[in-house]
Amino acid sequence: MHDDGGRRLFGIQQAAADYLREPDNCYWVEPRNSEMLAEKIVQLINDTDLRSSMALKNRALAQRFRADIVAPEYVSIYRQLIAPKED
Question: If we measure between CA atoms, which residue out of 30, 20, 29 comes closest to residue 54?
């Protein structure tokens, strides 16, 4: 669970909240708050520099999740899980 300005996030939202920071690379909006969503969309439409900055930061963030980086981490975890336990 992550508290982002009073909002509680769970599951996939929690995973996203671990990596995404407003306004660096995302905007958080309240669930079912169409007015807030519309405001954020308009901000992005009107602010070319912000859109470019977010895009650049998100491309850099995406590099952390490349298969050649993530796969060895998973293999390590799986090896630990299947390793014989010492008594």
Answer: 20
